[in-house]
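To the team - hexanoyl-coenzyme A complex, inputs and output below.
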Amino acid sequence: MESPFKADILKGKVALLTGGGSGIGFEITAQFGRHGAAVAIMGRRRQVLDAAVSALQLQGIRAIGVQGDVRKKEDAARALEMTVEQFGRLDILVNGAAGNFLASPEDLSPNGFQTVLDIDSIGTYTMCHEALKYLKKGGLGRDPSTGGLIINISATLHYTASWYQIHVSAAKAAVDSITRSLALEWGTDYDMRVNGIAPGPIEGTPGLRKLAPEEMKGKSRETVPLFKIGERWDIAMAALYLASDAGKYVNGTTMVVDGGLWLSKPRH
Ligand code: HXC
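Output:
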């Protein structure tokens, strides 16, 4: 689907996206690129990164891939350094890297629980912490008049409770809390904006392949607003809105993009 935004809304901007080589992350990366940004993607799998970078470059997008794990502070620092070395600055950090699997609390070891918190929550915080020196007002390589932007990819699982997702729900609750705290502190001190996006079920993603049967079971077309699976495009458009000047007064919010699914209840 064609973008309703002008093609130059991110002209001159530089974005680093963790988990930007596949799924929702890749669509955000591609749309940022098509709207003028240079993009760096960080991920664990070299083959996925290489394929993503080639696909972006074929579209005329300036792109690099950096292999790394958000659980490692040195990988986070290196991805940021390489981005700024290549493109001269950093304007936008998107934290999209996430771990997920279905497990009941009975079967989920504390280490399994921690693994997902390490990727989603600590990984997000690590990337934000390491990126501050580039994103803050007056930061390395930046136009001194403004600060940059962070977008944290979250979920809606923890607004209520979701079967077999105790670890991801806890991890994403922490992500939303990090979003609000950084929006307050870095918005005040460094003129930065920190926001989140909480996607619903999105077609063609690892999240949906793993979770859809449980998520959608028992939901009926009659009771779920806009009953349909979302597209990666829907999430990328929300990210473009937040990243562009259209979102310049939005700070500390996590935008739910799920067609109203999380609040649906049976009709009585
Ligand atoms: C129970 C599991 C498990 C499973 C791993 N563990 N998979 N426990 N059921 N299916 C446990 C292991 O037993 C181990 O604990 C601990 O977790 C660490 O496992 P490792 O395999 O050593 O970890 P690692 O190789 O680091 O892999 C972590 C991973 C990751 C979380 C499994 O590889 C992963 O998730 N990859 C998929 C990425 C993905 O799907 N991304 C999209 C996310 S979608 P013990 O105690 O045995 O040592 C998303 C959407 C959410 O986030 C919301 C949707 C609506």
